[in-house]
Design brief:
globular, binds 2'deoxy-thymidine-5'-diphospho-alpha-D-glucose, 7-stranded parallel sheet, binds nicotinamide-adenine-dinucleotide
């Protein structure tokens, strides 16, 4: 048959492997998870279910799209009967659930999509797993990927641990908190084998430039204003996206059913300090005079309900599952800057069309 396998042959082979449904695999973190699993685990069959919203982009996965153990499925997790039929047809035995509406500012502007995808979409997947796994449950796993934002906002000196009470404060974080509760409810009530992780802010390649780091890099490159919310004093804990994908790998394979793991970089930055670092790096990379990019910094109206500080204590994951971040922030940020500069085509394709409408609505015409 040579190297090209027929669809039937592909399906037959797929039935002999671990069949993992990854949702949201065309997005930022999802694409790193898909790449990692397709590449490292040729014995697993990876199905990437993604609606391809503005945030989903198959160009993120060009390097693995032809792999034998990979299949892309375009579909919406909010469509319950569709999700059920997919489970019945493809017999997934594992789920890594990342699909979500993920941007806080969009959730403030338009919360309903967040309720639908993040809550209803998650329950649809839980229900389909419950209905289809039955007696095979011991072999199965529903892994829900969540955020540290469910814990709310921290004062100086505190850290989020797994037992920190939930206190979500935006429609985005409330929808993610709700989905976390539902995942735990399916474990407690039906015994569904689940694991949850709550991660801090990710950065790295292929992130949609509505999020701080790629937005700032793109604006500096194009000599556009850098919009800093409030006084730029909010603090975030940044983790390289490939380290998050590594943590998801470790938790998927070794995490205890019913447990939650916090994932973070122990790498806190005030927004304004981080933006200044990016300005300095970009001055060098673009051959501009020192201080040139920082002139673009513009303080704008604060985000409504803006959480002051997030910081993760990931010692449970480090102690129990032996995970740790693989690189220092300076190295990760340098790699990230280089990637965006080298991938102008990617940036141009994701910032065309509806991006301009979003940008104008969110920031006014401040270019
Ligand atoms: P993203 O917005 O880049 O990607 C989300 C993906 O989900 C996109 O490919 C999109 O097309 C898909 N999607 C959206 N609605 C869908 C639907 N109804 N049906 C099917 N697919 C749909 O998000 P991200 O930043 O990669 O985040 C992925 C997950 O990780 C989310 O659950 C998010 O809450 C969580 N998380 C993100 C961060 C972060 O810093 N970005 C940190 C912690 C946790
Ligand atoms: O903590 C994990 C969360 O991190 C994830 O769950 C979310 O999906 C992800 O979007 C991210 O949320 P944040 O709101 O922290 O990320 P964002 O990149 O939108 O903003 C980071 C900080 O920068 C925040 O304090 C707001 C500020 N900011 C952001 C933008 C887009 C600005 O000052 N100006 C901006 O233009």
């Amino acid at each position: 048959m040579g190297m090209v396998r027929s669809i039937r042959e592909k399906k037959r082979l797929a039935l002999t492997k671990k069949r993992i449904l990854i949702t949201g695999g065309a997005g930022f973190i999802g694409s790193h998870v898909v790449r990692r699993f397709v590449t490292l685990y040729p014995d697993y069959q990876i199905y990437n279910l993604d609606k391809l919203t503005y945030a989903g982009n198959l160009e993120n996965l060009l390097d693995v799209e032809a792999a034998d153990n990979y299949e892309f499925i375009k579909g919406d997790i909010v469509d319950r009967s569709y999700v059920n039929s997919l489970f019945a047809d493809l017999k997934f035995d594992h789920v890594i659930h990342l699909a979500a509406e993920s941007h806080v500012d969009r959730s403030i502007e338009s919360p309903m999509e967040f309720i639908e995808t993040n809550i209803i979409g998650t329950v649809n997947l839980l229900e389909a797993a419950r209905m289809n796994w039955g007696d095979n449950e011991a072999e199965c796993l529903f892994y829900h990927v969540s955020t540290d934002e469910v814990y709310g906002s921290l004062e100086q000196g505190e850290l989020f641990v797994e037992s920190t009470s939930y206190d979500p404060r935006s429609p985005y974080s409330a929808s993610k908190a709700s989905s976390d509760h539902l995942v735990r409810a399916y474990h407690n009530t039906y015994g569904l084998p689940v694991v949850i992780s709550n991660c801090s802010n990710n950065y790295g390649s292929h992130q949609f430039p509505e999020k701080l780091i790629p937005l700032v890099l793109n604006n500096i490159k194009n000599e556009m204003e850098i919009p800093v919310y409030g006084k730029g004093e909010n603090v975030r804990d940044w983790l390289f996206v490939e380290d998050h994908a590594g943590a998801i790998d470790v938790i998927f394979h070794n995490g205890q059913r019913g447990e939650t793991y916090n994932v973070g970089g122990s790498n806190e930055w005030k927004n304004i300090d981080l933006i200044n670092v990016m300005c300095n790096i970009m001055d060098e990379k673009m051959g501009r005079a020192k201080g040139e990019s920082a002139k673009l910094i513009t303080f704008v109206k604060d985000r409504a309900g803006h959480d002051l500080r997030y910081a993760i204590d990931s010692s449970k994951l480090q102690r129990d599952l032996k995970w740790k971040p693989s690189l220092q922030f300076e190295e990760g940020l340098a790699k990230t800057v280089d990637w965006y500069l080298a991938n102008e085509k990617w940036m141009n394709s994701v910032t065309s069309g509806s991006y301009n409408d979003y940008y104008e609505k969110q920031y006014g015409d401040s270019r």
